[in-house]
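Hey team,

Filing this mostly as a record. A colleague (T.K.) asked me to run one chain through the structure pipeline before their review meeting, and I want the input and output archived in the tracker in case anyone asks later how it was produced. No errors, nothing strange. Just documentation.

Input sequence:
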Amino acid sequence: MTSQQINPAVKKWPIETLRVLDICQHIHKHAEEFYQYLVEIHQEHNEISRMWGLFAIDKCNQSDAFKMVSRLRGEGIKEINMSAEVAANILLKVKSIPRGEKRNPPSVLDALRFTIRMEENLTSVHFSHVVKFHSEQNTSLMASSLQSSNSIIHVMTEEYLNLTVLNADVF
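Output structure:
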């Protein structure tokens, strides 16, 4: 077989580069666990708890997408837009988020403020930003299983603003 007969969509990726996919999977798994913790400790705030539940589902979907792509071992992938070092640093930050404190949990306002910032920072680890496929069909297939979290962030920001205005002594 000559080099001209080799499919250009098949590229041999170094293990270190493919490791990014596994790390991204773990980033989203830890974020999912954090959102589940928030749902559990703030059940009395129905709407906000529901949003955190949606984020937990979104993070689970993201984790599953990275897991599926990781199993492909690079086949059909055109680009991986993150280094293992950057991904590992993000994973360390996500792992360091405290989530076991049930006696003295963060207030709903603190948790909202934190999760809004966290989501803004995690946009770089969104599946569509990390992996590009040769085939548009593969990209569409993987992206179809993922829901956009931008609308949830918007609603969460509105909830935060509503709570801070309600709690302010300006009236």
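Quick notes for T.K.: The chain has one domain: 11-167. The radius of gyration is 19 Å.
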